[in-house]
Amino acid sequence: MSRSTVSVYVACTALLLAATVGCTSNTVGEHADAAPLSGTSAGKPTQNVAKTQQTWQSQEEWVLSFYKDQSLDDEAKVHHIVDHVADMNWGTLNKISGHQSLEVIEYLYKQRAFIPSESFPHLIRASDSLDGTLGESYAAIMGELFTRDKTAMTEALANTDKSNRARGIGSIAYALSYRETSAVKKEIRQWQAGQQLTAAEKEVIRALFVKLDDPY
């Protein structure tokens, strides 16, 4: 092959390679524009927004759902239930649960150690629409909690409305009536001697003493 022929061959080969590279680059660019990477749009990241729909539930439905939730341990379950019982109607809960109101109250009694003192106001406001066995079981909880933390319960009673306060005091007195009244009063007086109670809190104790003399 002559020198001139080789030169022509090399030149043609170079032109062919240049054309091939150019076509390949254009093809890649076209595909890149047509199909951006997942999660991007026109070279910019995009976000997937998950939409969740919340269903409104009544307090009774919330309490029932927490009570039936087997994924919760007893401590978490008690906290959730107690946080939703304020102003709840136990009769309504009984209807939607298939008569499980007593079961829920008895569960709270058995797990009362998990009821925190800061939740006492919620329980005090859960005293409406209780009667018969429900009322007695509720009273048992209130009596135990008062015995455990007189300071927190007295403060909570003093800061609630008149109707719930009266029912709460009545429930505590009923529960404590199973003990010797004089011994109960002595225990409360000994506790009171070491406290600096407000006027409202002193009134709670006075009303409790009156109710202890006639708990029924």
TrEMBL record:
| Top-rank lineage group of the source organism | Bacteria
Q: Where is the signal peptide?
A: 1-18
Q: Which of UniProt's keywords are assigned here?
A: Signal
Protein name as catalogued:
Lipoprotein
Species this chain originates from: Paenibacillus terrae (strain HPL-003)
